[in-house]
Amino acid sequence: MGAQKKAPTRAVSDDPEDLARVPLQAVLLADSFATRFRPITLERPKVLLPLVNIPMIEYTLAWLESAGVEEVFVFCCAHAKQVTNYLENSQWFSQPKFSVTTIESHNSVSAGDALRLVYERNVIHGDFVLISGDTLSNMSLMRALQEHKERKKKDSNAVMTMVIQRSKPSPITQQSRLGTDGLFVAIDPTTKQLLHYEENTNHLKGTFSIDKMLLVDNTSITLHNDIQDCYIDICSPEVLSLFTDNFDYQHLRRHFLKGLLVDDIMGYKIFTHEIHSSYAARVDNYRGYDTISKDIIQRWTYPLVPDVLSLGNSATKLERRGMYRASEIGQSRSAQIGPLTVIGTGTTIASNTKITNSVVGKGCAIGSNVLIEGSYVWDNVIIEDGCELRHAIVCDGVTMKSGSVLKPGVVLSFKVVIGQNFVVPPYSKVSLLQQPTKQDSDEELEYADNNSDTLDSATGTMDKLNGDSSLEFSEMQHHVSSELGYGGVGYIWSICEGSHEEEWRHSVAPIPAEKLAEITQVIEDDLELVSQDSNAPASSGELKPDSQINAEDDAVYFEKEVEATFLRAVNENVEVDHVILEVNSLRLSYNMQSADCAGAIFHSMMKLALDTTHSTHNELLRNVQNTVNTWQKLLKSYLPGKDEEIEVILKFEEICLESARELSPLFTQILHLLYDKDIITEEAIEDWESEKKDADEADRVFVKQAEIFLQWLREAPEEDDEEDDE
Amino acid sequence: MDFQVVVLAGGFSKKLVPLVSKEVPKALLPVANRPVLSYVLELLEQSNLKDLIVVVEGEHAALLVGGWISGAYVDRLHVEVAAVPEDIGTAGALRAIAHHLTAKDILVVSGDLVSDVPPGAVAAAHRRHNAVVTAMLCSAPVSGPAESGSSGGKDKTKKAGRYNLIGLDRSKQFLLYIATGAELENDLRIQKSILRAVGEMEIRADLIDAHLYAFKRTVLQEILHQKDTFQSLKEDLLPYLVRSQLKSEILLNGAPQPEENGNEKVASQNNQVLLSQILSNSSRPNFHERHELDSYGSAPARRTHKCCVYIASKSKYCARLNSIQAFSDINRDVIGEVNHLSGYSFSAHNNIIHPSAELGSKTTVGPHCMLGEGSQMGDKCSVKRSVIGRHCRIGSNVKIVNSIIMNHVTIGDGCSIQGSVVCSNVQLQERVVLKDCQVGAGFVVIAGGEYKGESLAKKEK
């Protein structure tokens, strides 16, 4: 959109003015409102977790400052105190042109709540950057901001600009990179307006659908699967009021974005800004943590790299092969520190220890003959001799007794002690805190109210634990052979059913080969699903899976409604004619054929007969007889011809096979009854029989059952006919 | 080029009644006084595609078309005319003549196409990508004067956007998605798998399918044989190929020679395997770009087939004569905007008046008009933007605007004809006023008759 708009002099003269009037503000959500980083996040907020030895929020704040943001409102909810304390003691509170204000809340359970609270505070006056505290970027905001402002000027409905980035379009790369699922978006190629946003949560659905109305307004839209959402949004102040107006908006993407895209009454629009050469990513889960750490070490995020951004007084130096070493490291000569590794200040490494592709924090004591590979060891960790760590996260204050082993994907939360020679199984999460009983790792439940309770109670426990930890410890030491081996302290969290499958997706461990194959398999299943789905209808000429599904749904609803009507008629003694009227109106509203009505009514009748008390088959038959007697007029009014009658027989078969097996032994008798009552003519029965001639054995059960009756029909009718003729 | 061309010339299209009749099948309807089929044939000839099968629905129509072709193109083209039963659809027609196909690739052209896009370019694109099918797409109708003129034309362009939805890859060379006909009524349903494979897909509503396809013969024959319910190329066969373009890969191993990967599922789907074997036979061992993206890591390389598109540049003309509106539009365009198609050289006044035509005094024939051989016009007539056929007798004080008058039409004095189509041998008596009408062949309009937006034709049929 830039070309003609870019008249540089104007833009430049305009912009500083705007900026002068309203300082650029940002809302930083220092709570992810998710549980992906549990158990660690039970004790420390996610934004304070170290990413290559620097708390995540540092990266975000550093970027905001460098991008020209002047006022940041840090919204903290879980562990609000910790975040505030951290910020108060950090350099950020003393910056001259960069003010950081914290907003604390204790009952917000979602980003939506957070933004509503921000709105109440009435602190945002202009466009602002919405970002969560776990986002890392080095992009320049100027372009995006300018585009946003230009758009806003022309169209006041353009309330948000979302920063996106291109990635490789394959579920495997997406999965193995940030551990996020593929994202399907539709964008208008000319205006860059976002038209559709779908997180690929449902792996089973092989297609995704787009509102056809989108194409009425646009002659062309682009669909992307190669887009990565950076979770950096430039918002107009309206966004906050929108959250307030729509109190049910919780999740930024799932609710807010979807809400705006679906709702065309207000006409709010969301645009995208694609960044090409800069870096932006969000630490969404352990895998993202792993990937982004590596990106930082490999300096993709420059200038947000350890040697530039180092905190406090300890300088980190970059050496060859991606090695970062802080000062005051006690390293044995025989220790091998491999490539792409970061070692924090005051850490000592004993002889014959091998560390590769890992990050080791401050003040760790690593014994001899230790193997650390692809792991993240935070501060003050004690690793005794002969331990092995592969692709694990080890939090502050952990002690690993000699010979213990961490299998890939293990997460050790704060101050856990692993017993001697204990092998922690893959993907286990170990914490001093017990797993909250109401564990709701399910995405959908994340915003359930009980979540905050869990969190609070957990925090409570944690505080208590912090308070008299010595007591707890001694208590724990009593049962020395805990589930973490001799002398171990902590609980291994059980992996709940649903999330088990997810563990490998989101862990720091590389995805095992078989899982990769599995993903591929999923895709292939997808393909197969799609092809089957498209083949079946295609053979009948036209492809309309959608309408078929709808039709089926409709049929089910229709049947239910007819049944309800019928039962009411029975209970309230409504006249048959009235029932017919009601059913007719249903038929019209569902656009059904009379065959469908007949089927539905017959179904309801049989159900009534079944529900009437009976103990033997004979009683049941009598019930059926009674019902048929009473309601034959109703049924007949929907049986104008043979085809409808056949439909009834087919329906009857279906009932016998599925919903009411009790009726199946009576099939022939009831069929005979219907024949006697002239509800079903013999032609219909014959046609039904011939229709079934070529069917599978299973489908012919009832034909066989009725064989005698059919035989009789075939022989007897001639006389009937003759009689009729006479 | 080893291309065999099948021209689907249709029969007596019901949509074009009363313009078509027993004597004039759709293929022979005049566009600027030449049968519409001649535009396709000459277009093919220009691309040096001379080996043609013209498929006509109905024996009688086939005779008429065959007669005309043998007269007009006897020494220029090698044309076979095949008659197929009526109403069997485009796929049905192809199925009926499938055994005649021998060349490596088949170009299927609709006989009602009026275009200047070289089919050779489509064929070349097809070969270049070694595609299973290549479809020619053109930008939404160049309705030419329609935009400046009648509002009817505008409606049409608006509607045209709803004809097709077409999904293209980034390079705009591959066809990833197509929605036609009834599917347009629903929301779009796009296979995630294909989107995953390509990453980016552009959905366009401003392209129309020109009904010019290049097919790989083996694939075409196999599908026609196996999917015997397919009726229409555009609505059944093409979407099928597009949908399954990534599917064939899952049934086959990545090795260059088609080799089953020992999957039981595969074995159970014998037909599928056969079909996909053929489909994948037709694609080279090293697949197209999209597929390379797809064969990552440990995943087995997969089989695909390619569906390509050739998008005609916006400056090219492309239209299909498939409605009465289109008939008028095309006639107007061919003598107007895109007159190079007509094959005539226009006079300085931008019109064509056959030397043998006679004009009365004070009769004016405006630009973008055509007056056929041996036609006579009386005094004080005015003709604007119209085509008048051969041997017409037109009286005095006649106004003809935006209309098509076919051959041997007699028009009485004082008639006014606007936006209408008058077929051959029609007689308009004095002072007839026609506005937006169609008059079927041989009809007689009584003196002084005034009609608006009507379709006049002889009752007997």
Question: Secondary-structure map with pairings?
Answer:
The complex is a heterodimer of chains A (726) and B (461).
Chain A: H1 2-5, H2 8-21, E1 25-29, H3 40-43, E2 50-51, E3 54-55, H4 56-66, E4 71-76, H5 80-89, E5 99-104, H6 111-121, E6 128-132, E7 135-137, H7 141-154, E8 158-166, H8 171-177, E9 183-187, E10 194-199, E11 207-210, H9 214-217, E12 220-224, E13 227-235, H10 238-245, H11 252-262, E14 269-275, E15 280-282, H12 286-297, H13 306-309, E16 316-319, E17 323-326, E18 330-331, E19 336-337, E20 341-343, E21 348-349, E22 354-356, E23 359-360, E24 365-366, E25 371-373, E26 376-377, E27 382-383, E28 388-390, E29 393-394, E30 399-400, E31 405-406, E32 411-412, E33 417-418, E34 423-424, E35 429-431, H14 449-467, H15 469-478, E36 481-482, E37 485-486, E38 491-493, H16 497-506, H17 513-539, H18 545-572, H19 576-590, H20 594-611, H21 617-636, H22 642-657, H23 667-676, H24 682-692, H25 701-705, H26 707-725
Parallel strand pairs in A: 1-4, 1-6, 4-5, 8-14, 17-20, 18-21, 19-22, 20-23, 21-24, 22-25, 23-26, 24-27, 25-28, 26-29, 27-30, 28-31, 29-32, 30-33, 31-34, 32-35
Antiparallel strand pairs in A: 2-3, 6-13, 7-15, 8-13, 9-10, 9-12, 16-17, 35-38, 36-37
Chain B: E1 3-10, E2 30-31, E3 34-35, H1 36-46, E4 51-57, H2 59-73, E5 78-84, H3 89-96, E6 105-110, E7 113-115, H4 119-129, E8 133-139, H5 145-148, H6 151-160, E9 165-168, E10 175-179, E11 188-191, H7 192-198, E12 200-204, E13 207-216, H8 217-226, H9 233-243, H10 247-251, H11 264-268, H12 270-281, H13 289-294, E14 307-311, E15 318-320, H14 324-335, E16 352-353, E17 358-359, E18 364-365, E19 370-371, E20 376-377, E21 382-384, E22 387-388, E23 393-394, E24 399-401, E25 404-405, E26 410-411, E27 416-418, E28 421-422, E29 427-428, E30 433-435, E31 438-439, E32 444-445, E33 450-452, E34 455-456
Parallel strand pairs in B: 1-4, 1-6, 4-5, 8-14, 16-19, 17-20, 18-21, 19-22, 20-23, 21-24, 22-25, 23-26, 24-27, 25-28, 26-29, 27-30, 28-31, 29-32, 30-33, 31-34
Antiparallel strand pairs in B: 2-3, 6-13, 7-15, 8-13, 9-10, 9-12
Helix pairs in contact in B: 8-12
Subcellular location (chain B): Cytoplasm, Cytosol
Family (chain B): Belongs to the eIF-2B gamma/epsilon subunits family.
InterPro entries (chain B): eIF2B_gamma, LbH_EIF2B3/5, NTP_transferase_dom, Nucleotide-diphossugar_trans
